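Below is how a single chain appears once it has passed through the pipeline. First comes the sequence as given, then the structure the pipeline wrote out for it. We keep one example in the README because the format questions we get most often are answered faster by looking than by reading.
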Amino acid sequence: MAGQHSENLFRRLKGELVNIKTVSGGVYKGRVVDVTNDYVCLNETIDMEGSQVFLFFSAIESMVTGGDS
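Resulting structure:
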């Protein structure tokens, strides 16, 4: 995904639940909580605590929006 286009896309999805696959094969699911020109921050709620994950746009391969995607 290209930088500026990715940033604009994630800004529109702020607060939404997304699934993101990285080029290394990792899959992350969470709500978009922060977006900068370099990365997107997800709040993962896999366990009760939840954790923040920061993903650089250059590492993102694909993304799916929605609940149980």
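The radius of gyration is 11 Å.

See the next section for the split statistics.
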